[in-house]
Amino acid sequence: MIFNSVLSTTRPGGLKLLTVGMLALIVAGCSTPRSTLVDRGDYIVDTTHPAKGQNERVRFLILHYTALDDARSLKVLTQGQVSAHYLVAKNPPLRDKKPVVMQLVPEDMRAWHAGVSNWNGRVNINDSSVGIEIVNLGFTDNMLGVRTWYPYNETQITALAALTKDIIKRNNITPDNVLGHSDIAPLRKQDPGKLFPWKRFAEMGVGAWPDDATVNKYLAGRQPSAPTDVLTLQKALHQYGYDKIPQNGELDKETRLTISAFQMHFRPTDIEGNADAQTEAIAKALVEKYRT
Ligand SMILES: [Zn+2]
């Protein structure tokens, strides 16, 4: 969601790779290793000795809804203090039968979409993520307080499937690091909302999902809606990645909001934030699959 993000305005510095004026020289004779020199204008860099200790800077893929229409989404995300790497329109146009998505920020630059955020021991997720905003109005509450969520359409799903698979592959992003804004900021965000089809995306290879058999093992014959020990659920959610969930055994406001964020992702039929047996079983199944 675009509004209310607390943003750092720090610009990335000194990390941009310069590839101008590349000059490769082969060491005289046939001896190895091969020396590769890169001319950067006033100095030359020798890249002969690449370190084994390195990995991708991008670790996370974060999904959002904009809660605005197409025109306002584009304006806010290009002219304001928030941005995202990609914007998927309400009805992405087709070109050569392929959906067109908008890229607003290059992937090697930092976009301002996550705000204050935490996941699995990491903070400031803007530093290490690619962010996708999807045009969707989110939800509306009527006068009786009944909430209606807006669905995503098939054109958006098709565009997102291709886009997310490509980003994940190029950046080696693990399934448990494909997340919603509500996962990394559960106390203040609800996007991409309970109607984002996380299970369908997991079946396409995008994002995490627990195995049914493991969920049943941890359910251990209990009714899915049966109340469960709050501290046990808090511990499981903390172990999976929700770093800020209290560890006090109380169903306080922070705990409820975090449980609800988890339920929006993995058990959207009931997102009330109660500590029930099914939520605990899903959390433990995810820990077993992705954290051990
Ligand atoms: Zn968001």
What key phrases describe this protein's structure?
Lysozyme-like; 292 residues; alpha/beta; binds zinc ion; Muramoyl-pentapeptide Carboxypeptidase, domain 1; five-stranded mixed β-sheet; 2 domains; two-stranded antiparallel sheet; 8 helices
Shape: globular
Q: CATH superfamily of the largest domain, please?
A: Peptidoglycan recognition protein-like
Strand order of the largest sheet: 7-4-10-3-13
Quaternary status of these chains?
Answer: single chain
Domain count: 2
Strand content: 5-15%
Helix content: 25-40%
Structural class: alpha/beta
Order of helices and strands: EEEHEEEEEEEEEHEHHHHHH
Distance between the termini: 32 Å
Mind summarizing the main beta sheet? 5 strands, mixed
> Over all CA atoms, what is the radius of gyration?
22 Å
Q: Catalogue the unreliable spans.
A: 4-30
The DSSP helix count reads 8
Task: Please give the CATH architecture of the largest domain.
Answer: 3-Layer(aba) Sandwich
CATH topology of the largest domain: Lysozyme-like
Provide mean pLDDT, rounded: 91
Pfam family, one: PG_binding_1
Protein name: N-acetylmuramoyl-L-alanine amidase
EC number: 3.5.1.28
Domain N-acetylmuramoyl-L-alanine amidase: 46-193
In short:
By secondary structure, the protein is α/β, with parallel strands linked by helices. It contains 8 helices and 13 strands. The strands form 5 sheets. A 5-stranded mixed beta sheet has the order 7-4-10-3-13. The protein has a two-stranded antiparallel sheet with strand order 1-2.
Descriptive overview:
It is a single chain. This protein is α/β, with parallel strands linked by helices and 292 residues long. It has two domains: 60-203, Peptidoglycan recognition protein-like (Lysozyme-like); 212-290, PGBD-like superfamily/PGBD (Muramoyl-pentapeptide Carboxypeptidase, domain 1, Orthogonal Bundle), CATH 1.10.101.10. Helices cover 29% and strands 14% of the residues. The chain has eight helices and 13 strands. It has helices at residues 70-79, 154-171, 181-184, 198-203, 212-219, 230-240, 253-266, 277-290; strands at residues 37-39, 44-46, 60-65, 86-88, 94-95, 98-99, 102-103, 118-119, 122-123, 129-134, 139-141, 147-149, 178-180. It has a five-stranded mixed sheet. Strands 1-2 form a two-stranded antiparallel ribbon. The longest helix has 18 residues, at 154-171. It starts with 36 loop residues before the first strand and ends with a helix. Bound molecules: zinc ion. The site of zinc ion (ZN) has 5 residues, from loops.
